[in-house]
Amino acid sequence: MTVLLLGGIAEARALAARLSAEGVDVLTCLAGAVTHTAAPSGRVRVGGFGGVDGLARYLHDERIDLVVDATHPFAARITQNAAQACTLTGTPLLRLSRPGWSTHPDAGSWHWVESLAQAKQVAEALGQRVFLSIGRQQLDEFADWTDRAVLVRMVEPPERLPQGWTLILARGPFTVPDERTLLRDHAIEVLVTKDSGGAATAAKLGAATLEGVPVVIVRRPPDPPGVPVVPSVPEALAWVLSRR
To answer: Where in the chain does DSSP place strands (E)?
Structure first.
């Protein structure tokens, strides 16, 4: 059995290791080259497929038996493409999506929005010193924030950064005490983030509450209808092994 694992979150690496240990032929597809960390277990493919039709052809040509979509919760395009391609080819598909932060004890006090555009509008009314924690792919949405102090943190540097912004390169997990220090050192007045979920970067949320910093958080896009979803690696592993 060959499993195509669409990677993007830390759980994808863990699942690849578990599948390989079970003797499953797992092929992990990554959007970009792996840096700073070892490659996932099993085979690795880097790059896109060329849309729904390209992915459907790949599933057929490579004789893929199962697909597990473990991409980032906000990688909506590849998630939709995977659902459509698997429907076209009759390939079983599972979505591995770690729980978001909607059940966090402080979630009721956050400013929940539907898009980055709304997040920007709300944040502008809350403060001039912003911790912008949204990754590096969509920074351009905030590029005209040259009238305020903006702190960004990511694993790899972006291609460009607006003048006057402060960049920190770091990889989680982070602790609440460290995040409180970060907020204090930069006199942060508002945190803007996305509902990515996971424990590695959740500490900033608790730190924001303790420091009295408002949180603006973008809701996740919905998963495709009809696709089974599990929240953990053991459940994804069980789903695959049940079909061997």
So the answer is: 2-6, 25-30, 43-46, 66-69, 93-96, 111-113, 129-133, 149-154, 166-169, 190-194, 215-218, 229-230
42 confidence band (pLDDT: 50, 70, 90): confident
DSSP reduced 3-state for 34: coil
What φ, ψ does residue 67 adopt, rounded to 5°? -125, 135
Q: Return the CATH number of the domain spanning residue range 107-218.
A: 3.40.50.720
CATH architecture of 2-99+221-241: 3-Layer(aba) Sandwich (3.40)
Q: Do domains 2-99+221-241 and 107-218 have the same CATH topology?
A: yes
User: What pLDDT does residue 226 have?
Assistant: 94
Name the pairing type of β-strands 215-218 and 111-113: parallel
**Are 29 and 61 in contact, with CB atoms under 8 Å apart?**
no
- Considering the entire predicted model, what is its pTM? 0.89
